[in-house]
Amino acid sequence: MQTNPYQTYRQLQVETASPAQLVVMMYDGALKAVKQAAAALQRRDLHQANSGLLQAQRIVLALQDAVDGSAGELAAQLDSLYDYLYHNLVQANIRKDSESLEVVSGILETLRSAWLESARQPSPARPAATSAWR
Q1: For residue 1, is pLDDT > 50?
Q2: pLDDT value of position 124
Q3: Is the CB of residue 34 less than 8 Å from the CB of residue 101?
Q4: What angle (nearest 5°) sits at the alpha carbon of residue 125, between those of residues 123 and 126?
Q5: Which of 35, 41, 75, 102 is geometrically suited to a Cys-Cys bond with 132, CB 3.0 to 4.6 A?
Q6: What's the chain's Rg over C-alpha atoms?
Q7: Residue 131 predicted with pLDDT over 60
Q8: For the whole prediction, is pTM greater than 0.90?
Q9: What value, to the nearest 5°, has the Cα angle with vertex 107 and ends 13 and 33?
Q10: How many angstroms separate the CA atoms of 56 and 124, rounded?
Q11: First vs last Cα of the chain: how many Å apart?
């Protein structure tokens, strides 16, 4: 049985990534799922839209689950933001509304940028930037 080189590469990326890099990868996955769902909604492919939105919901829940609640106000705000994103994804799925997805994408892009910047920082700065995430 042959292995898929892309899958091998992705697995190696995950295994060698820092916590901040893993969060960025999760945001990438959520953004990809939201964009695919939005495109499917435009095509009126409701099955594909549902699949993308469910994938994005799972990722947002995983991000929310990883928030360290003992990290203070920043963690509480991040938790609330994930609640908001999840709610919008569910509503977009129920209503088949792509406008909600624009809001979600914008927030995910902003969060991704912040985490990407954190991932690029030298190691001593990383714990402070990632303290809200377990």
Answers
A1: yes
A2: 56
A3: yes
A4: 65
A5: 75
A6: 16
A7: no
A8: no
A9: 50
A10: 32
A11: 37
